[in-house]
Predict the structure of beta-galactosidase.
Amino acid sequence: MNIRIFFTVLGLLSALCVWSQQTERRYLSGIGLGDGVTWQFYCSEGRNSGKWSKIEVPSQWELQGFGEYTYGRWYKKKGVKNPSMEEGIYRHTFRVPEDWRGKNIRLWFDGVMTDTDVIVNGVSAGETHRGGFYRFFYDITSLLKYGAANKLEVRVKKHSGNKSVNAAERKADWWLFGGIYRPVWLEAKPQTRIEHIAVDAKMDGEMRLYTELKGVKGKEKLTAALHPLGGTDVCSEVRTWEVGHDSVFAHVWKNVEPWTPEKPRLYNLIVTLRNEEGKALHRTSVRVGFRTVDFRPRDGVYLNGTKLVMKGINRHSFHPDGGRTTNKELSIQDALLIKEMNMNAVRSHYPPDEHFLDACDSLGLLYIDELAGWQNAYDTVTGSKLVKEMIARDVNHPCIVLWSNGNEGGWNMATDKLFYRYDPQRRHVIHPWADFDELDTHHYPAYLTGVGRFTNGYKVFMPTEFMHGLYDQGHGAGLEDFWARYTAHPLFAGGFLWAYSDEAVRRTDCNGILDSEDYNAPDGIVGPYREKEGSFYSVREIWSPIKIKPLQLTPSFNGRFLVENRYLFTNLKECSMRYRVLSYPSPLQSRAEGCTVDSGRVNLPALEPGETGYACIAAWENPEIREKFFSKGDVLELEAIGLDGKSVCTRTYPISFAKSYFEEQLASLKRTGKGCCVNEADSLITLCSDWVDISFRRNDATIYSVLRKKDNRIIPLKDGPLPVGMQMKLVSLSARMEQRGDAVLCARYRGGADSVVWRLRPDGLLKMDAVLLNRASGGGGFDDAFTDNAILNFGFTFSYPESECTGMRWLGRGPYRVWKNRIPGTNYGIWQKDFNNTVTGESADKLVYPEFKGYHANLYWATIQGKQNAFTVYAATDGVFFRVFTPDEPRGRQDGIRTMPDFPAGDLSFLLDIPAIRSFKPISQHGPQSQPGTIRIKKGDEGLKLELAFDFL
């Protein structure tokens, strides 16, 4: 049984079993992506044009093999006046049951791009509908043959005959599609009927019911019953009104629970129109949530009396295999992923599929519903019709807290008043990008937003777009700084990241490649098939509603730590937290992934939203727990659980720091050797052991070769250490043997480095101890060590052939790579990544995450896996960043502009500082965590140490 039939049967069963549903719906199409009905189709131009064929409805015809693909900016960029302008003709035959005679029959279209003309049995059903993102209908009661076959013809123009529609919808930064892309159905109602209901349901149970009735004589009655969803099936109460000439009915429902994004309580309101004797004439239902939304100038946006801070993202209705044809399952998946990132709000550039609004209602996401208009507006006549269509469909969704009239100049101010006319809740109307009607929605603000706006302004501030996520930029990069600054201001109402998913379409004309139109569409925090990028986890941590304050584990730790309640409506006592103490093994234990040495509950304080207090590990008073914690543990893991029982954030903290962990692992190394020696030649100095020989160049003290003796193989790590972020000149190089059998090479420098001491032990372990930034380094010349005081990368680099590498296993923060301003979201653990060459947001086939190449934080050890060789490097210095190769720049980037800061020379680098990555704005307009490091060393400073150890066995 396919999905469409299943839903039809389910609807019929519900009608028979629950109550006599007199609104009947019959789909002429499928219900979404993966469920289509075949219609006849003719395309005027492009692929498969000029002949009758077949097409699945709903769908975008480009993805069905017809016409041409066009991106909204394409024709502007290419100098072409207009994009592809195909027209399509759909034909379908359907039957209407005889018992529908005498009823009102409407033909509904949930979304068609872009101009629609409908012909039923050879007669026009009405005027052309213009606008691709809206639900509309034709009354075809008089055009039908009952109990017989009917012929439907739908003529669709991809490019509108109305210039303002093209300006608002087609000259836009998105893919331009054509076709009937949302479902089509017939709806039958009795002649005396409830035409439309709009509900204003307040948080205290007060409800005003706005009705539009047809065919009434004035003596009818309305009854309303309220059923809680997901709870008991018994209605809370029933209310009856005399219809008369009234269209607005009021009642206060008792004992209702308000709707919030944290507790999205919903009810089913069943409204019945009855005749004078009480017989049901027509019955309909609407899902409602009781909540009060109000905007307070120079204050904020309030829900149920609580000031909102919206943690939002911009989402398009999009899927690579369907274009804008989606389905309920995808809407639920997207809503759950958005909730997983601890977001509570969503915005789009047009009304989404209604099943996405349903998901927002039931899962708890605030929504800004927007009339389309990407930098250009509809004319007043067209826009007025579309405002009415949008609000008629969406008015009763409790998730909608604001209306939006266009985007970035795409608003027609003449239509603003219509939102209040059709919405009895009179939700506030915004103009995204503008400072309009006391709500400033300025896009892509800098960290310091400027005089007259947020920094020194007096308007409520809510950027409806910020932290642009092109390729690997944006979203989590610098968000921690922005969010800390913005939430400190009482006029901040939240912000919306750009954007949710990479909009790469699977091209049916190019062997199925994924095309994101170069740099125009890879803006997502998830990939086209919802693959999670690194920023997904950064945002999840930064926006966690349970915030753990900075925590450093030392012997003084008493089991208590500060937490902040960043929920809006939830007391922290309704949530929970658990801990695990983890122990991580040596890399010599190749299959070990770590073990839990202790776990248990964390006691959370009863904190109201916005309060901070102490949480405590429940069993800390037990001395055995404390002993396990410090003697056996390497990492403390804290996982916060929300009131719905789902994890909201996992944070990890080192118990064993790099030096102590390294020394413990070193003690477990069981290899022995007879001793080492030093061989000196004209150009090389070689440190030798029974296991490996390491040769260094005399002229610059860099590694020339590494020979593993047991199989006589060369480990291709060489050409280092070379300085990164500094200059250094070799002053002296000397080798010696020590009494315990170590072979030592000491290189002294002038400039940024003081010395690098290499020590080869008899067991084959090679240690590197470097002293940097010592004011007395190398006999002077420190002032010439840096070309600029601003440092992007700082440390040492080596060469290693990318072609040799097959993967990496490491202990440190992972599994995703980091930037200086995007470390949140990574956690301590043992991670494994196979080599991949993923370019974030760009792929002709599929994206593999996490990306392999890039910077990795807080290295303890890493094993570089090769086709024939492998080696392990340990860090005995805390906070070492491990750079692994250089990520490729996107091929489709704009005019060859680099999307990432420059990487160091070489292939493998060990760094004490790394660069930040920009997010739409240049780094200079980001916060302090994004700024380059500066070097200031005074006389007497000990400098910095970088201690590594290499195991080539």
Observations:
- Residues 797-951 form one domain.
- The radius of gyration is 33 Å.
- The chain has eleven helices and 64 strands.
- Residues 446 and 925 are 5 Å apart (CA to CA).
